[in-house]
């Protein structure tokens, strides 16, 4: 059996799990846009210190790379099946969502939605890569479980 055929594909997870993961992914990504609107309404879009903007973007980038490093590792007590994938999904969700929540706090500290709005496209891209179920995400999961 060659290595490519041993890597799980999207079809290897049950349809119910695929629907659950897809629904949760899109809901969380949609929530980041809702946070942007809420932040714009509450604090406004005034000027912000450039350090807050840079910090917001760096938090998202750090979350992206932490998710690559730790989000695809298998939990020792859960070795196979959809439960292992869902556990990894929830870990990636936590890792990619923490920078978003910290950026909301930075928006309130800066008294401007600008830091959050600048980091928003990076947050959505990071979440899309790590949360939305695709063949490449399944491959990353499969490779991490082999190594």
UniProtKB/TrEMBL annotation:
Classify the source by domain of life: Bacteria
Which keywords annotate this record? Membrane, Transmembrane, Transmembrane helix
Task: Locate the transmembrane regions by residue number.
Answer: 26-45, 51-72, 93-110, 116-132
Q: What is this protein called?
A: Uncharacterized protein
